Amino acid sequence: MLGQLLVSSITSGAVYSLIALGFVLIHKGTGVVHFGYGDQVTFGAYAVLIGQALIGLPFWPAVILALLASALLGALIYGTLMWPLRNSTLLTKIIATLAVGTLLREFLRAYMGPSAWPFPFLLSPAPVQFAGLYLVPANLAIVGVSLVLLFTLFFLFERTIVGKAIVAACDNRIGASLVGVRVSSVFLAIWILASLLATIAGVLVAPLLSLSPDMGLIGIKGFTAAILGGFTSLPGAVIGGITLGVLEALAGAYISTALKDVITYGILIVVVLVRPQGLLGTLAVKKV
Question: What is the reported pTM?
């Protein structure tokens, strides 16, 4: 039973990791905690649905259209909101992200209605038995896509000049500017990349949950995973997501399924109180 639980928990953990990566990427690069990010996840899934139901596109062309729309949305958020607010206080930027999330959520509720919509699985949801474990092809697809994205991001940041420029701008904006890195372009790339991650996460998680305007609450799980792993660490976001998925599954199996969300919020509170830098993050110390 424990083996089956761990296999099942990796699916949700992979989705949490993707959402956490978006949180960390935006925060590490721009210093903003995007509290509307969960609603961007929902927007991405709805964009696919709109492409299918209203425009009549097949699934994969609709996914491509949704990715383009999410990239445009990320650019709009940065260009029309975050860039003008670049010298504002952190509280102002956080309120702005909350406004973005509320705007997206209520637009979807008004345009698509409050009811849940069905969303197709990437592969068959029928379980198959392998080595004594029941594996669901649709869940394996989620884990596979997540792993490909994680390794792609690792390659981008560790092996490419563009990725190194992003890391340099995230670590030291002034130093990066002095060596010729256009920080504003890097920030734009971060918002677009985070928006693309949100849409991919939305496509992966929408079949597992009910696709409704309130699906953005999944962002709380991604935020908790980011806190757990360390809000400044991209590998920490992955470890935090997988750890949260496993802990949720164990709590649901051995305590109560009704307490899964309670466990999530409990982890968030404990980490903030006991180890605010998370598992892999570093504690920033400022001289006064």
Answer: 0.85
